[in-house]
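#struct-help
A.M.: can someone run this one for me? Single chain, 164 residues.
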Amino acid sequence: MSDLNELGLTTLAGEETTFGRLTGGKAALVVNVASQCGLTPQYTALEELHKELSGRGFTVVGFPCNQFGGQEPGTNTEIQEFCSTTYGVTFPMTDKVEVNGPDRHPVYRTLTGQADAEGEAGDVQWNFEKFLVDPAGQVVARFRPGITPQDPDLRAAVESVLQG
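D.P.: on it. Structure tokens below:
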């Protein structure tokens, strides 16, 4: 497994950084997001979770992806405007990436090795699949798209990696 915190990425604003710098060394819930998906309203709960726990060493990180039904067709500027205007998103986001296939982003090459609660690893199933990463950059849990940020099992997993 590669050191997730050292992997490079580009923010939605076009800045080159690493996963560790983007998260600020906090525990992170990494989510592949899309603006035109039936699950897009999860942005509200993701932002609430981010705001509620950011003071305890936690962040949400959004990775826009257009691989599922073409549900994220916008430019980085359009994605940023949609997320901030429609859902008040303040958590960090990257530029649009691929999460499956030969051009899978290096962060997702690491994340998809993590099994879900049923023991299944591999490709991301759909938009809004979630991966929990501890502050050291270790992937500790995976939640399929239908599991919301308010889900008790997800919340318990997040609490288990918080700093206080």
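A.M.: thanks! The domain at 4-161 is CATH 3.40.30.10 (Glutaredoxin).
D.P.: also worth noting: The radius of gyration is 14 Å.
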